[in-house]
Structures are given as structure tokens and as C-alpha cells.
Design a protein that fits this description.
With 571 residues, the chain is mainly α. A 5-stranded parallel sheet has the order 2-1-3-4-5, with helices on both faces.
Amino acid sequence: MPGLDGLRAVAVIAIIIYHLNPRWLPGGFLGVDTFLVISGYLITSLLLREYHNTQIIDLKNFWIRRFRRLIPALFFMTGVVITYVLVFESGIIRTVKEDGIAAFLYLSNWWYIIEDVSYFEASEPRPLMHLWSLAIEEQFYIIWPVVLLVLLSKFKNYKHIMLIILIMTIISLIWMMVLALPYEDNSRVYFGTDTRLQTLLLGVLLAYIWPPFRLKKDIGQKIKVWIDGIGIGALLILIIFFVTVDDSSHWIYYGGLYLITLVTLLLIASSVHPSTVLPKVLGNRFMLWVGTRSYSLYLWHYPIITLINMNFVQGQIPFYIILLQVLLTVLCAEISFRWIETPLRRHGFKAVWPAAKHRVRFVTTGVIAVVSLTVMTGVFDSLHHDVNENRQTNFMSEQETPSKDEEVSDEAVDLQEISPLFIGDSIMVNVGEELEARIPNAVINGEVGRQVRDTLELVKDNYDDYGESDDIIVIQLGTNGTFTEEELNALINVFEEAEIYFVNTRVPRSWETSVNENLEEAGNQHENVTIIDWHSHSEGKTEYFSADGVHLLPEGVESMTDLIIDEISRK
């Protein structure tokens, strides 16, 4: 089924682009859902064919095949990453060790849920975090064949089984909607096997409706045109989702993923049909090469990107580094595919047996295995340290901001006559101390994670007296997500005639453009609103930022403070 390999290629390319830079393809993370629905469809199709031919499902043989297909390549990649981190990035060794153990047990997704790790805003580099989706697949491979065998033995009528599966998808969808929180980080929903089951089971349902091994090659021309038309339309819609959806689009948790999966089902149905054009298009040589290596490409791309990005400022990574990441991903994936994945799938552990022709492979994998197992004992945990400590020197909570007893600078003396109000998120926390030193009468309120929708109530409760024409308000928000025009206008209207300054944002996330466009529009619509253009001012200034590309180092703190003071001093 070359069309299915081509579809895998579409999915893995989308995921890689998203992880290289979310702004290039903000919905690229949806490629994971494409993989999940393909897994549900293909595995169930194989199991049903086996049951149809033999009236039994050989569970032991199925699990051995899955083990040989998935686990050796996973163990090899994880071992290489652990070894690399021990030698070159030992500051994150404990995190990688814990994530590696979870990966070996195929429990990564639940580990991240327990640890309250955010998929979208990771606080430290986690080069194995992408294995959450493989954990869901493996859990599915272990449990679903047993459930399917029970269903097949209890219900002779396939329609009854299909109805049960459909109900299960709806239960998973409803559970996702119950757990999801509007405008919050929904990593729990994103990682959960329970909430992602809908995608896998919709693929299962398609295996009953459209079994690939029973499709007829000789069909009418009109039917071919219809199947191709539906498939091409579904592919275009899926690409539109990749381009327009982003990781702050919370509607995907309220039926959106279900809808996207239904579109993917139509694409799969067209891609696997033996008589149509789409499989030939998707199954061209390039897409076939990528698709057959999609598992290896998925395994390797994320740790390579993450570990290299540790040495650069996120969002301002040179193009040649991005090209290097792509080349290393392809190289490592090809080595893994030819050296580990394919030989062990075909020959089992004989492929790494200490025979003469396998000696290099045996020694290499053996060393990596020994190093990995040693790391997992915790013997190197003492090397671990907070990698953000030196990169976010000035990043502290509002409660930790020290009192200032130093003499007021000459510049501050000139600014003693004003008492502006500063409101913001973690960036305001970053610059708060410097602002306090240079504008002694300033009122500063910064809070980590704050968004525009959180600020309206804060202002009404605490700062509703700031509304006169001689009042100065500086608002710095947008680091943690976008906002609507209505939310922004409501905040502006609270301050009535005050002079309001909005600091726009530089954040390497998909919502950066939306935030800055909304602020620019507000500046055009309201005479008392001025935009402080931090985004343009900080362009190319990697020395301003910590590794996350958002929070500020001392030079960045000073530069932002200068920019703000210059703007508010003009009026």
C-alpha cells in the first residue's frame, strides 16, 4: 500500500517542520493524529484478516512482530541520546534518565501527565518527550488485540462490534471535552491515552468499513473519480488544518480532533484503494522513501533538534543550523533503518549476534546499552543541574523581587515625578527590578503565565483609579498566548483616557504574529494607545535572550527598559 506510506511521509514531514519552528507550520503537530489513525486502521485490518482466514488471532506472534518492529530502534535511539547527554549535556542527565525509563516501559505519556509537563511550553530541554505518542501506540497494541478477540468471540455480527467501537470513540471525545479547559495548557488532554483513544478507534472503525485487503481493483470509472476526488479533497483539507490550526486553538479539544480524524479517514480510504490515482501520487519515489523510514525519522528528529537548540536562542536559530538538523535527522534515521530497524525486524536478535559480520554492530550497541543501563541506576544524577539557572539570570517571581536600598541614579531622578503602572507576565517580572530602580514611583505588577483575559479582573479590582489623561499605563502581555479583539478593547476601556502603552512580543510560538497584529490594530483604533515595538527592536539580538527565546538576560532587560522609558518620555 504505497499510498499509506506516502501518507506517513506527509505526517512525519509536517511534524518535523513544526518542531523545527512552530511558526512555519503551526498545525504540524496534527501529524501525530495521522499516525495514530493509520495505526488503528492498519493493525486492525491485519488482525481481522488473520481472524477471517484462521478464526483465531495469534496474540503471541502479533506482539513479537510489534516488538521487533518498534522496540529495537527505540532502544537504540534512546541509548544514543542518553550516552550523548552524559558526555555533552550532563546538566539534564537526570531528566533524560527518568524520561528514558518511562520510554522503555512505554509509559512516557502518563509519566509526563504525572510530572505535569507541558508539551507546548517545556521548562527545560526534554529530548525524549516526543515518545509520548509511541507510548500510546504501544499501549494500544498490547490491549486492543485482546479486546478485539473478545468482541469477535462474543459478537458474530460485525455491526454490533462497529456500534460498540463508535460508542467508545464518543466516550473518549466526551471525556476529552470534560477534561479540557478553555485558554489553558491542555497537555493532560493532549498526552492522555484515554482522550486520544477516539483517534485510534476511528481508524479501527474504518478497518471494518473499508478493509484494504478486500478492495476490488476493477471498479467503474465514475467510482474511481469519486474516490480520488474525495481523497484529494481530504488531503487539501488536512493541509489547510496543518497551516491554519495552532497549538493554542482550543477548539480542537472540543470535537476538532474528531473532525480532523474523520477527514483523515477519507484520505486513508482513498490512499489504500488499488485502482485509483491518489495512491500512485502519494507513493512516488521520494514520498515512499520518506514513508518507509517515517518511524526512524520520527524517532531521531526531536532529540537532534532539541539537543542542538540548547546552544542557540529559540526562534532565532541560523538557517544553516536548521539545515544541519535536517541532514543529521536523515543520516541518523537511515543508519537506524538499515542497521537496526530492518535487520532486527527480519532476523530478530540474530542481527546483532556476536558473529564476525555483525561485530561492529554488536560492540556499538553493547557499549550504548551498558552506558544507558548505568545511567539509569542513578549513579550520574549528581551531574544534573538547573539548565535555566544561568540562562534566566533575572527571571524571578514577583514575591522574590528584592527591595532596593541603593541610591537613585541620575536618570531615575528625572523620572521621579511620574508614577506609571506596569502590568505584565513573566517578561515584566524579568524587567521589574530594573524599572523599579530607574522609575522609583512606578507601580509594577508582573505574574508568570498571565494573559490578557486574566488581567481585566485584576485591573478592575486594583487599578480602576488609573483613568485620567495624565496617567501612564504600560502593558506587556502576549508571551503565553493570543487574545481576541474584544478582550483587548475591554482592557483598554477600563483605563478610559489614560495614556496606554503596549509592549509587543517576541516569542517563538505560533501566536506571535496574532498577538502583534492585534496590538497594532488597537494602536490604530485608539488615540490613547501607543505600541512599543520590542519585536523589531530585538530582531537578531540573540544576546538579549535566554535559550527559550523569550525570557531576558541582563543585556535584554536593560534594552527593554531603555525602550520603554524612551517611549513614555516622549509625551
